[in-house]
Amino acid sequence: MSEVENIATFPSHSDTDDNRPEKEPDVNGVGGARIKSYIERIERLEEEKTALADDIKDVYGEAKAVGLDAKTLRKIVRLRKMDTEKRREEDELLDLYMSAIGMA
Long-range contacts: 2-7, Cβ < 8 Å, 24+? Predict the structure, then answer.
């Protein structure tokens, strides 16, 4: 190979790392693209959560429009999520405290 041919086989300055995008830094071994992916998923879920919250608010509004008390409905929803034993314990404590202050 001649000297001119040999020089042509080396990468030109434009092919060096100086012109390539910088590699994204890792955080605890997790690349920037993966971190961005997590963030974007969280943002989409937050948007969905907001939309669901608006839908729930609309349902409470519909219930109120037909004469139901939204506060009572919310309490029932909360109580239905509770474990039966936990709910029973809460009711007993409420009764005990009300009795202690003369409300029962």
Answer: none
